[in-house]
Structures are given as structure tokens and as C-alpha cells.
Amino acid sequence: MTASGRSFSDAVVAYTGFGVDALPASHPERVAPPSLRAEVIDLFRRIDRLKPEGGDLSEWARAQAAALSEGDPRLDERARRAIVARLTWAWR
Fold it and tell me: What is the pLDDT of residues 43-53, one digit of tens each?
């Protein structure tokens, strides 16, 4: 499965395996073309630098995804959910 010819949001979802894999992860091989893959990898490098400050992990992850989508309107609701799944899994 690749995100060739798809939107940025579709590429984000494919990259994480959201809705396909049991656990969210990083799958750059699922995103094509290389220019889109580079954008998605850059987004997740920024995401990977985020650190929860305590409190409810799910609320924090949703707030981070909302802030990211405010800065990048290409992120639709499904992409935000994929980001939330990845963040909450990464910080369990």
C-alpha cells in the first residue's frame, strides 16, 4: 500500500498504518512519491520531539494534533486521529 497520488493526509495515515496495522508505527515505504515522503517524515520528526507534560495523555495528544492541523490545513480528521494514535502509543 502506498500513498502515491494521494493527499498529504492520506500519506500521514499510510505512514502510521492507522486503520490497517494493530499498532501505529513508521512506514516510510508506504508513502510515494519521494517528495511527499520527505514532507511526511519531516512532520513526524517534529511530532517525535513533542513531549507530554503530565496529565491525560489522550487529551494532550488531541491538543497536539489540533495545533499541528491549525499550522497545516492539509491535515484532515483522519490524519489527526492517526497522529493521536501514534503519540499516545509512543508515550505509553
Answer: 999 999 999 98
Question: What amino acid occupies position 1?
Answer: M
Least confidently predicted of 9-13, 51-55, 75-79: 51-55
Torsion of CA 74, 30, 39, 64, to 10 degrees: 60
Please state, in angstroms and as integers, the Cα–Cα distance from residue 30 to each residue in 62, 66, 82, 83, following that order: 24, 24, 15, 16
What pLDDT score does 4 carry?
45
Q: Label residues 8-28 b or e (16+ Cβ within 10 Å = b).
A: bbbbbbbbbbbeeeeebeebe
Nearest to 63, CA basis, from 41, 44, 86, 80 = 80
Q: For the chain, how are helix, strand and coil distributed in percent, rounded to 5? A: 60, 0, 40
